[in-house]
Amino acid sequence: MPQNPDFELYDNVGRDADQIAAAHYGIATRGDLLRWAKRDAEPFLAEHPLPAEPLPSGDLAPYLAALAAAETPAEFSAVTQRLLDAAEPVLRAVSDYFFAAAQWRGQIRGAAKGSPPRLLMEAASRSLSVLAIADQADLMTLRAVYDPAPPPKLPPSGQTQASSSLPPAQPAPPSGPTPGR
Asked: Model-level pTM?
């Protein structure tokens, strides 16, 4: 099987586990694949320049400072909800991109489970799940403070606590001869 001419066999000195395993199996590392793709995409990126900086406002310092200063669940929730509101447009845009990437050139049609298009579709779904899970955690924190579960009902004064927590005893089997089949 011919190898990419850019592929180098590695010795183990100064190499990470990924490079050692790749050399052992004769496959390219993640870094190799990304380097080759970057090299081959240079003409395309020259025609379609993309921003090199991170997506807008990746600075969490104000949120982390407010979180450190929060003393009540309401204050904690206020910080969390503001962060979720700020992150939602970016995560939705990323999800939309993954969805479009999964459908690129119709590759999603008939794609097997675990294939790149299906993995991209899963990434699109999971990128928004982060928001839902964080919101659920915040609401559970608030519910514990503002709307706790009612205390369990006390048993009537004649019964003990232990007997009321056990299921009722099974009825005794009937005595006497059992009917035949």
From this structure: 0.60
